[in-house]
């Protein structure tokens, strides 16, 4: 009975706070509409200037191959390397391609020709991927160049030399056949939406009552601590499930992304994860004296959790000691669940390690939320 009255109070209080209602409706839509288009690991629109010292048909074809790749924007030809490098130093362009004199002859008679590439690597990711893209374009151009002319590297006729085709690699992209980064990113965005709403809002709840003085009215009631904490959690539990459902519908309508696995598996893990996140928010609220403290502490932990969750960078590429720390990050396990169910069609049995980890977090954080609440009679 007491739980019912407290829940009614929480829902009324939630509805009377316009900013909370607005966040619940607008935040998921904004995240799903904007973030998948701006957060991506593939780099495009790398600006390039070319120093063409050969001015041959082959060099012209090579420049065309780079420009038509979709990754590079040709900023034009410059007469010499010094002028091109100056444009890089002034951030007017990202890379310089220098085609040497005798480029075409080298391809026809020497088995190949060198091409010099200078890339602005201030942004290490942009520089590394840009160089990788250019390497792939060069390899494809060489193969096409020789195939069209029926010659092998070194100038021999393919048939006269008795050559056989080289080893061909057939690549099959499993789980993400279109190599669309949005497919990889969107299941992780569900985590951001849940954490921001079901973590931040509970963190502001109890501390808000402390500031208003209404917490004293609760303290003099015979309501037990577990019932009080549960009454604070359940509204955000319901809100989190609803927001997740809306986000999944938006992902399907806008991007055509639907889970390959069971919706029941997603629901089961989501309920546990939302409980854990809400409990952590209440723990922070219990220890905070004002709203500013709660917001700062939550922002710090959520930022660290997101960066160490594998959302943006693979955990395997992190230093060993950081990889060890990620095992106490509940976001890591939930992201693995969402990507596994969405992209691989993972079953509940496939995700048993993640289930037990999230259950442990739910029990630990839920207990901590109850113990840390200081009810004074």
Query: Structural class, from helix and strand content?
Result: mainly alpha
- Computed CA radius of gyration, to the nearest angstrom: 29 Å
> Which percent range fits the helix content?
55-70%
Report the span from N to C terminus.
Answer: 20 Å
Strand content: 5-15%
Uncertain ranges: 158-169
Order of helices and strands: HHEHEHEHEHHHHHHHHHH
Give the neighbour order of strands across the main sheet.
Answer: 2-1-3-4
Count of runs of 4 or more consecutive helical residues? 15
For the record, the count of structural domains works out to 2
* Biggest sheet character: 4 strands, mixed
Description:
The chain has 377 residues and is mostly helical. It folds into two domains: 2-39 and 181-372, no CATH class; 46-149, abc type-2 transporter like fold (3-Layer(aba) Sandwich). The chain contains 15 helices and four strands. It has helices spanning 2-15, 18-38, 57-67, 81-89, 103-109, 124-149, 181-203, 205-212, 215-219, 225-255, 263-287, 291-307, 320-325, 330-344, 352-372; strands at 46-52, 72-77, 95-99, 116-119. It has a four-stranded mixed sheet, sandwiched between helices. Helix 11 (263-287) runs antiparallel to helix 14 and helix 11 (263-287) runs parallel beside helix 15.
């Amino acid at each position: 009975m007491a739980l019912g009255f407290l829940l009614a109070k929480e829902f009324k209080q939630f509805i009377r706070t316009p900013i909370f209602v607005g966040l619940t409706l607008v935040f998921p839509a904004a995240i799903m509409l904007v973030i998948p288009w701006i957060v991506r690991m593939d780099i495009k629109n790398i600006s390039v200037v070319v120093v063409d010292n050969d001015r041959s048909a082959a060099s012209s074809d090579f420049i065309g191959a780079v420009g038509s790749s979709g990754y590079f924007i040709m900023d034009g030809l410059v007469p010499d390397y010094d002028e091109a490098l100056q444009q890089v130093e002034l951030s007017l362009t990202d890379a310089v391609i220098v085609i040497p004199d005798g480029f075409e002859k080298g391809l026809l008679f020497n088995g190949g020709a060198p091409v010099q590439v200078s890339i602005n690597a201030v942004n290490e990711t942009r520089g590394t991927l840009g160089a990788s893209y250019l390497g792939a374009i060069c390899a494809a151009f060489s193969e096409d160049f020789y195939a069209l002319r029926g010659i092998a590297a070194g100038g021999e006729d393919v048939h006269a030399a008795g050559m056989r085709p080289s080893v061909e690699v057939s690549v099959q992209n499993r789980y993400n056949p279109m190599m669309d980064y949005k497919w990889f990113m969107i299941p992780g965005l569900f985590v951001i939406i849940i954490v921001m709403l079901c973590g931040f809002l509970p963190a502001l709840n109890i501390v808000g009552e402390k500031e208003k003085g209404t917490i004293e009215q609760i303290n003099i009631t015979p309501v037990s601590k577990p019932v009080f904490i549960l009454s604070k959690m359940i509204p955000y539990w319901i809100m989190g499930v609803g927001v997740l459902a809306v986000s999944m519908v938006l992902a399907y309508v806008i991007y055509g992304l639907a889970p390959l696995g069971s919706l029941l598996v997603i629901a089961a893990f989501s309920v546990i994860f939302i409980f854990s996140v809400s409990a952590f928010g209440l723990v922070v609220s219990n220890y905070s004296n004002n709203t500013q403290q709660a917001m700062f502490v939550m922002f710090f932990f959520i930022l660290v959790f997101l960066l160490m969750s594998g959302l943006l960078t693979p955990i395997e590429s992190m230093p060993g000691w950081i990889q060890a720390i990620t095992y106490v990050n509940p976001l890591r396990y939930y992201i693995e669940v969402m990507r596994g169910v969405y992209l691989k069609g993972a079953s509940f049995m496939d995700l048993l390690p993640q289930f037990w980890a999230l259950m442990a977090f739910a029990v630990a954080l839920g207990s901590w939320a109850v113990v840390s609440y200081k009810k004074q009679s």
